[in-house]
Amino acid sequence: MQLSSPAIVLSVRAHGEHGAIVRALTPRDGVQPGYVRGGRSRAIGPVLQPANAILGEWRARTDTQLAALTVELVHSRAPLFDEALPAAALEWLTALTATLLPEAQPYPAIYAALDAVIDAVEAAPSARGWAGSIARYELLLLAELGFGLALDICVVTGAVDDLAFVSPKSGGAVSRAAAMGYEPRLLPLPAFLHAGGEAGWDDVFAGLRITRHFLERDLLTGRAAEVLTARGRLVERLQRAVA
Question: What separation, in Å, do the N-terminal and C-terminal C-alpha atoms of the chain show?
Answer without folding.
Answer: 52
